[in-house]
Specification:
Elements (H helix, E strand, L loop, with lengths): L16 E6 L5 E6 L8 H17 L7 E5 L2 E8 L2 E8 L4 H18 L6 H6 L1 H11 E2 L2 E2 L4 H8 L12 H24 L1
Antiparallel strand pairs: 1-2, 1-5, 3-4, 4-5, 6-7
Family: Belongs to the adaptor complexes small subunit family.
GO biological process, one term: retrograde vesicle-mediated transport, Golgi to endoplasmic reticulum
Subcellular location: Cytoplasm; Golgi apparatus membrane; Cytoplasmic vesicle, COPI-coated vesicle membrane
């Protein structure tokens, strides 16, 4: 069934979606579904999320991820502070790979969010959260499981040459070099 997600071959590990739910009431904070045919509409997604939250709330709390089957989907979830983080896969998907993806996302968020993975920080740094999810799960395909690599790519580390101190210097220097190049061509051709 994993082949149904975004048309990938069955041997490529994929996720149907990822959820960050409010740990107190189970409402959606972040939800990204990669299989457009998984749920009919927003109402069906919300109902599914409530069933997942009900299972997560009934499970013992701890550092380990838990696995549950909800509506024939494999759900790997972990309660983190005031959040419930869930990676959803097809029923036949390997739960260890889904757990690895969940761990990579949560560990990257630990590196990226100033005060830990809590609801307030997720809201404050939502672009970082979404980029982290995209770095680990691209269209549902599990791409990266390295939290530090994900965090580096989200923060664009290595994008600015080491000799430069900032993006603004990089941009200003680029503009001057381009202007100098154009001017030398124009004056060089006029002579």
């Amino acid at each position: 069934m994993a082949a149904a997600v975004a048309g990938f071959p069955p041997d490529i590990p994929t996720a149907v979606g990822i959820l960050l739910l409010d740990g107190a009431v189970g409402t959606r904070i972040v939800a990204k579904y990669f299989d457009s045919g998984a749920f009919a509409d927003l109402k069906a997604e919300n109902a599914f999320e409530k069933r997942v939250f009900k299972k997560a709330r009934a499970a013992p709390t701890g550092d380990d991820a838990e696995v549950a089957i909800v509506d024939e989907y494999t759900c790997v979830y972990r309660t983190v502070n005031d959040l419930v983080a869930v990676v959803v896969g097809e029923g036949s998907e390997n739960e260890l790979l889904l757990e690895a993806a969940l761990d990579a996302i949560l560990s990257a968020l630990e590196l990226l969010l100033k005060k830990g993975v809590v609801k307030a920080q997720v809201y404050k740094f939502l672009p970082r959260v979404l980029l982290s999810i995209d770095e680990v799960l691209d269209a549902g395909m599990i791409l990266s499981l390295s939290p530090s690599g994900v965090a580096d790519r989200v923060m664009l580390k290595g994008a600015v040459p080491e000799a430069l101190s900032s993006y603004s210097e990089f941009t200003v220097r680029s503009a001057f070099e381009k202007a100098r190049e154009i001017a030398s061509k124009q004056f060089g051709n006029a002579q």
